[in-house]
Amino acid sequence: MAPSVETKLTRLRTGEPPRLLDLFSGCGGLTLGFVSAGCRSVGGVELDAHAAASHATNFHPLIGGEPDTRHALARDILQHKAGDLINLLQEGSPEKGVDLIVGGPPCPAFTRVGRAKLREVAKNPEAFKQDPRATLYVQYLQYVRALKPIALVMENVPDILNWGGQNLGDDICKSLTEMGYRCAYTLLNASSYDVPQMRERFFLVAVHKETGSDPCFPVPSRNVELPRGYSSSRMVALKNVLSRSSRKASWYVPAPATDSGAQSAVTTYEALGDLPALTAHLRGQDRRGTRRLDGRIPHEKPPHSEYSRLMREWPGFKSDGFLRDHVTRCLTQRDYRLFKEMEPGEDYPKVHARAVQFFLKELEKRQRAGRAIPEGSDDYEDLKASYVPPYDPGKFPNKWRKLAKDEPARTLMAHLGKDTYSHIHYDSEQQRVISVREAARLQSFPDGFRFAGTMNPAFRQIGNSVPPLLAWHIADSLLRALGISSKAPPRLSEEPPKIQQTRNKVA
């Protein structure tokens, strides 16, 4: 039987760190933010074997650095009851229970891309509603009911608020309210919280009524002007929330406003500019095969920004002066040619048009040299393929994009595990997509954080994660609202962070 909320509060008042359980933990973005704020990880629940191993490596290592096998084991939350899991993970002190639960139930069924793929597979417009991943939040709630945390945080994609016309955010809050929690949810953009990435996500915070506190969200530390597409996507996600019929019954609160004196967003250059350049030789341009993460590339430059200093000096995850996962993909000469000529911020339709021009010039060159190729011939198609990418620019407008040095990156997605054309390095001389370490930097993972597996699994883990710096801001505001002292990693600014408190139900 889980300890009561009152028992947990009494223990926490003695100064003991809050005990944290991360459900659907991935490699540990949320865990890192909360641990850095002063919590103690009791473990995570994660189905992906590589992500589970990463979580254990970073938060539950044995002497010598190897991960504790109890924590490194991949687990299906559907197969583990909460009490049994806690007894397993907390050998020696299961009676203390769990104080905080965080996590993000898998989101593919909630995203517009995920829904379209499911419909295509099933030939059924409503197929996404039958995806078992869409109901895993129920298991999250079952863990809350069984373990009685004093507070919790849930993360997901914004489309969870408009899932087949249903607002799951309100449904979840209704269930939590019946369990005795005060709830609120909003949409936060990571670039507003020191992360060099414009990543928009749903966050729900709930605190037990016995704490006497209200749910809260951190005031942004950065002043960010988001592209138009982010605003329109936000309005689509909030369509049901902001409708006249549901407004009075919703637990939604607008994201906290940014202070007028807030700094501008952390840029891609501030995040990546100190990392070693990957020349054709270092990136293995002409060598295909497995990309492992244990190579040692020394830092050639000192930290060039407050952000890069934080990434190197994050307490508990400091760099030892070498990068072990600064690896990227081996692509084609067609790609390298286009990467070099792309402009910052340029996307796939423009790249495709540029590639067609390159191809036509080569055809003209061969014709002048007396080596004309008949249109429609095999040689013609082979030459075209060596210049023009095969993707329809009308269907894949975001397939390729070159990073802009002076702004945050666009959202890192889970499909980084399959390709990284969406994040092409801004340095045209390097002619490449980002490396694993650069993706980690853009997601705010410190350089000392280790990823299990090889390149593709590492990319996937990073793309699936909550940015640790955003997680720290959320943890810091929550802990302080609960009257618990919060620790901070090296600050990017001297101004103390602020929080916005909200009542449990908002008219």
Automatic annotation (TrEMBL):
Keywords recorded for this protein, A-Z: Methyltransferase, Restriction system, S-adenosyl-L-methionine, Transferase
Annotated region described as Disordered, given as residue ranges: 487-507
Active site, UniProt feature: C107
Domain of life, per lineage: Bacteria
InterPro entries, alphabetized: C5-Methyltransferase (IPR050390), C5_MeTfrase (IPR001525), C5_meth_CS (IPR031303), SAM-dependent_MTases_sf (IPR029063)
Keyword Acyltransferase applies: no
EC number: 2.1.1.37
Catalytic activity: a 2'-deoxycytidine in DNA + S-adenosyl-L-methionine = a 5-methyl-2'-deoxycytidine in DNA + S-adenosyl-L-homocysteine + H(+)
GO biological process, one term: methylation
PROSITE patterns per UniProt: C5_MTASE_2, SAM_MT_C5
GO molecular function annotations of the record: methyltransferase activity
Record-stated family: Belongs to the class I-like SAM-binding methyltransferase superfamily. C5-methyltransferase family.
The name this protein goes by in its record: DNA (cytosine-5-)-methyltransferase
Class of enzymatic activity (EC top level): transferase
